[in-house]
Amino acid sequence: MKCGPEYWIWLQKTLGAGNSCDEILQYFGNPAKLYESGKKAWLESGLFSEKTLGKLISSSPSETYHTLKACQDNGWHIVTYEDEYYPSLLRQIKNYPLVLYVYGDKEVLKTEFAIGIVGTRNASEYGRQAAMNLSYNLAKAGSVIVSGGALGIDSFAHEGAIKAGGKTIAVLGNGLGSTYLRQNEALRDTIAQNGAVITELLPFTDPSRTTFPVRNRLISGISRGLLVVEAGEKSGSLITAGYAAEQGRDIFAVAGSIFCNGYNGTNNLIRDGAKSVFSANDILEVYAERFSRYINLNATGEQLNQAEKMPEKQVSEKPVVKEKKEDKPIEQKKGVLPEIPDFLSDNAKKLAEFITDEPKTSDKLSEDSEMPISDVLPALTELEMFSVIEMHSGKRYTLKII
């Protein structure tokens, strides 16, 4: 007999995100039966610490009203462990979440074939291109792309899936409705239109130093395999790779320059057994037979050409001559002007009207558009992310001519 979401929310809030509850559910059956059993049974079970017992005694499922109301008012779905939309792969991890809060299409959570893509927030051009290219082709071939909704590699992984017309899932380290990372709000809205944004944290919960590692286990947990695109030796992406190994997931990595510290993490993963990836097919071929009903190998593009996509910083035998720090004239290109996607935010659409082939700084664009700089900067990030504009030396922006 299923129990209402208020019981699942109550138990998850009491135990805290990321804590195992297998023994508790095996002993009591479900959160409703646990609550109805009462203090005496909780003590006799020996499953709870004194601190947890105090929380159980002092709280009640009725206190989840505000959470339920917030989800109802904002159109967010509540998916509990008993729900048909609960991801089947998450049921297999030892510390599965009891509740997921979902912004977007909860149907995408039922996918049987998803690939997680993670990497640094401070991505190089090589890493950004690799994330975009691989995500695009994986999504084209039928994979749902899972990432963390953050800046850098995460954003380009989500964008690649969206550009391919595929589905993508962003797993957040904060609650829905939190003001954290406001500059990626437009991307999260777009992801919700092309998949789902999910979290196990209560609505409006801000992130902390503990929430992102807890979140990372879900990125790998919901995925068949995890691709690490660009990561240094102490990257948070390696925490996700560690979870992937514990969960029995396949680990893939994009090799980078041995002269660049930003790739030490990914190169070490390959040294330790991760499969080196040069194209989407290197990943898809691992699953092609098992998930043939999802995968179309013929839909992918050409293999990544590493020689053309190496990081900008290379070791040279010749001495480096530093140029005088002056803004160089930008070469005028002939071509087709970019289209402005309908899903962009109103601020991004408005700002785009003031960007031409004449390079302008953010301050100049703020002046021309009469928009506050606090609105201009996230709008620029959004426009650059979706290939409407490009940034040049001196942080000057022009339309990206195709």
Characterize the main sheet.
9 strands, mixed
Alpha carbon gyration radius: 23 Å
Relative helix content: 25-40%
Q: Which regions have little confidence, pLDDT < 50, spanning 5+ residues? A: 302-335
CATH structural class of the largest domain: Alpha Beta
What proportion strand? 5-15%
Helix/sheet category: alpha/beta
Task: Name the average pLDDT.
Answer: 87
Would you give the CATH topology of the largest domain?
Answer: Rossmann fold
Overall shape: globular
- The count of helical stretches stands at 15
Q: Any idea how many domains? A: 3
Query: What series of H and E elements makes up the topology?
Result: HHHHHEEEHEHEHEHEHEHEHHEHHEE
- Kindly state the number of beta strands: 12
Strand order of the largest sheet: 1-2-6-5-4-3-7-8-9
Distance between the termini: 58 Å
CATH architecture of the largest domain: 3-Layer(aba) Sandwich
Could you explain the architecture of this structure?
By secondary structure, this protein is of the alpha/beta class. It has 3 domains: 1-68; 104-308, 3-Layer(aba) Sandwich (Rossmann fold), CATH 3.40.50; 346-399, Arc Repressor Mutant, subunit A. Helix content is 38%, strand content 12%. It is built from 15 helices and 12 strands. A 9-stranded mixed sheet has the order 1-2-6-5-4-3-7-8-9, with helices on both faces. A 3-stranded antiparallel sheet has the order 10-12-11. Helix 9 crosses helix 10 (236-246), helix 13 crosses helix 15 and helix 14 (362-369) packs across helix 15. Residues 302-335 have low confidence and may be disordered.
